[in-house]
Amino acid sequence: MSTVIDDAPAPVGEAPEPGARRAAWGTWLLLGLTVAVFAVLAWNRRWMSDDGMIVLRTVRQILAGNGPVFNAGERVESNTSTLWTYLLVAFGWIPGLRLEWLAVILGLLCSIGGLLLALDGTRRLVGATRPALVVPAGALVLIVLPPFLDFATSGLETGLTTLWLGSTWWLLVRHARRTPACPVAVTALVVGLGVLVRPDLALFSVVAGIGLLVLEWRSWRRALLWVAAAAALPVAYQVFRMGYYGLITPNTALVKEASGALWSRGWDYLTDFAGPYYLWIPLVLCLLLGGLRLRRTQIDRAVAVVVAVPLLGGLALATYVVRVGGDFMHGRMLLPALFCLLLPVLAVRLTRATAVPVVALAVWAVVAGGWLRTGTDLTGLANGTVDVADERAAYVAASHHEHPILAEDFDEFTAMAGPINAMLATGQEPAVLVQNKQGVWHRYPTTNGRTVVQFFNIGGPGLLLPLDVWVHDPIGLANPTAAHSTPYPERRIGHNKYAGSVWDIAELSNESSTELTRYGDVVDTSIDAIRGIFACSPAREMLDSVRAPLTPDRFWQNLIHAVGLSSLRYDHDPRQAYRCN
Questions:
Q1: CA 76 – CA 349 distance, rounded (Å)
Q2: What are phi and psi for residue 318, nearest 5 degrees?
Q3: Which of 357, 341, 286 is nearest to 308 (CA)?
Q4: Less CB within 10 Å around the terminal CB: N or C of the chain?
Q5: Alpha-carbon span 216 to 185, nearest angstrom
Q6: Do the Cβ atoms of 125 and 346 come closer than 8 Å?
Q7: What are phi and psi of 275, to 5 degrees?
Q8: How far, in Å, CA of 34 to CA of 140, rounded?
Q9: Pairing of the two strands 134-136 and 347-349
Q10: Full 3-state SS string of 326-358
Q11: Contact, 496 vs 486, CB < 8 A?
Q12: Region class of 401: left (phi > 0), else alpha (psi between -120 and 50), else beta
């Protein structure tokens, strides 16, 4: 192997050079201060999103013994992150702790831990034994970006993503530096968890897995054992998912058509993230820092491999996000890719050559942290003309709370759930409940013994309503009939499916279409057409896969038909949908 001239640790057995101890203390002080500043800034922007509350409704169902579902009696995987859901379940039993606060605090702790591990991994990579100060560089980019601070909480899995990426990087650096913290099989198991954190993180898992095999190659037999260790939990859960839910992906991937290609909208999403903060400036400076290290250093194969992993993995993640059209939350889906790309330069050795770009990064960080913000058109967000928005700013404005955390902090959510709870208290028979344009509630008796209500935002109302009430949404996150419809091409990303209350009425009410016409402002001529869709065996099988009792035979039928069920689509206009022969 080549000798690392500038950045390597001192050879084993040699005493540290004079000043090395002071440099090490200074390094830890600066890196620790960076993490502390991030923790304070993220805490000061704490909040909870409706999507985060969707996760918490599932956590409530699990803790109540109803299984990993959003609605009891309807097996829909409405959460993207499996591990985040079960991590919340693991702590959800703590008495007196509201789940909203648990999600906020746990997400923040995961973010802090991930950043700390990532910084320590990069410190180990650049070498801190020789008397040179290691200072935060790429980390400055992260800790001042509002989206990175916002989604450290929010109730979503972003903090867990940061923790997993930081842990994986830290473990790989330890293997590259020949100071492994655990056996290769354990590292492989951690690498394999990516798909359970988020399905798209499988891209990074593949790159990291290949990197681990190159770093620790011994034989084909050992390699196969490590691959088996990485694949064990994801494969086991995939079998469960297919048998329990009847799908090969989380329902959220079905709703968002995650295999589609919307390059132009994805590019708009990328520019919406990069533009307001002039991200090209810190990225160019970080690239310069990486180039300076290459110029002054003869990199050995292990270092080259470990640096290639986050670069290739980050590019793969960014490309995927752009391909599928991005997201509706400003910056959120690109945060993992940016984190990966910055990993090799999160911290750098302070030398005469690196001083200027590090100072320039610090100047940009001050400007970005103090003044650069994305605009939020709240009016456009409300009327659906804005595709991408600053979600936290919108939630703060809507709730009139600086830190909206609890479902009750949102007047909109309490206004949704209050009338439903009042009607339930009267003991009336279960029904599909629909509010017309004049604010009058109509009841449509159901065939399944459940009260069913539909809202666009389902997380907050879901936390405020009983677990035996079916809370559906027209875009399909917790609604299987909407999830399998075709998208509307021009609607907002992640919200481009729409199957309104009339679908629930047609599918769950046994009243005739003639009887239903007495509620003319709610029911239209599509009732019979919708019922025609669900009279067909493919759609009927789909409904059985999520609603029929879960017997061993039902599990097996779901398992063997999961691929076909995942590909089932019918036109969002029921009058244009297929008909049974």
A1: 50
A2: -65, -40
A3: 341
A4: C
A5: 11
A6: no
A7: -60, -50
A8: 8
A9: antiparallel
A10: CCCECCHHHHHHHHHHHHHHCEEECCHHHHHHH
A11: no
A12: beta
How far CA 125 is from CA of 4, 74, 187, in Å, comes to 11, 49, 17
Q: In this predicted model, what pLDDT tens digit does every residue of 506-549 receive, in sequence order?
A: 999 877 666 666 555 455 668 888 999 999 999 999 999 999 99
Amino acid at 137: A
Phi-psi label, residue 97: left if phi above 0, alpha if psi -120 to 50, beta otherwise:
beta
Q: Token pair 């759930």 is at which residue?
A: 417
| Residue 170 in tokens | 């830290």
In order, the DSSP letters of 425-442 are HTTPPPEEEEE-TTS-EE
pLDDT class for 9, splitting at 50, 70, 90? very low
- Do residues 125 and 173 touch, judged by C-beta distance below 8 A? yes
Residue 327 burial (CB < 10 Å; 0-12/13-18/19+)?
Answer: buried
DSSP letters for 301-321: HHHHHHHHHHHHHHHHHHHHH
* Residue 347, strand partner residues: 136
Encode pLDDT of 399-449 as tens digits: 999 999 999 999 999 999 999 999 999 988 999 999 887 788 888 888 889
Q: Give CA torsion, residues 16, 17, 23, 28, to 10 deg.
A: -10
Residues with Cβ within 8 Å of residue 73, at least 6 apart in sequence: 66, 448, 450, 468, 470, 547
Ramachandran class of 384: left when φ > 0, alpha when ψ lies in -120 to 50, beta otherwise: left
What span, in angstroms and rounded, lies between the C-alpha atoms of 464 and 405? 14
**What is the DSSP secondary structure assignment for residue 387, as one 8-state letter?**
S
Q: DSSP state, 44?
A: T
Specify the DSSP class assigned to residue 347: E
To 10 degrees, what angle do helices 335-342 and 301-323 make?
A: 160
In angstroms, the CA 393 to CA 47 distance is 10
Residues in the chain: 581
Q: How far apart are CA 374 and CA 372, in angstroms?
A: 7
Token pair for 246:
């009847």
Give me 513's structure tokens.
């279409």
For the chain, what is the largest distance between any 2 Cα atoms, rounded to a whole number of angstroms?
91
Token pair of 244 as six digits = 């329990």
The rounded distance, in Å, linking the Cα atoms of 161 and 111 is: 8
